[in-house]
Amino acid sequence: MSIILITGGNGGLGQAIARSFLDESLDHFVWLGIHTQRDQADKLAGEFPARCGSLELDVTQPLSWQNAVARILSVHKRLDVLVNNAGRHLDSLLATMPLKAWDDVLATNLDGAFHGCQAVLPAMISQRLGRIINISSLSALLAPPGQTNYAAAKAGLIALTQSLAKEIARLNITVNALCPGFIDTDALGAMSPEERQAAQAKIPMRRFGRPEEVAAAVRFLACPQASYITGSVLKVDGGIF
Length: 241
Prior knowledge:
seven-stranded parallel beta sheet, 45% helix, alpha/beta
């Protein structure tokens, strides 16, 4: 049985990743880490009561990570896959960006992954097996105006991924990052029809991605056949360069 922890488990992308693992194999158990909203996470756990659960996890707090991992290990005695998916953005021009907007975005998107990796590594090192998949963003590679905090955090997450991958490669633990582009989740819900059309015009495939397409990439990086892939950054963006 593979034990999988996904942060940001109440959002559209977290839900798609969780469902992808649950649909793939009866031998997967998925834990959804959530902090505030939990309706969708609890609903999914209700659909798969024997193979899915939710737990309180504030990714910005090391103690919350320690408690969540301890609970998982108390039940399963192992933890195989961590998907650092929790994220947020508070967009603003840098000249007028509140300090709190900078701090909160860095804390969730970058610090949260750091705390998560530190929390799961003892178990993975003991097992000599593990998969860590960090959900970065196309903004890390093609930084747009108005997202200095988000772009910096997601770019930092790529650097974290590549450095950590080198540190633990000999232990059969892989660390990879995904950079989704425009994915049709609630995060794009505030866009007007005109904004959606303009955004799609920038995408060679002329459409937004589906959460399931990102989930498929996560599932591949977590599978045994991806054991020779580490420190990689995979764009899932419809061809934007």
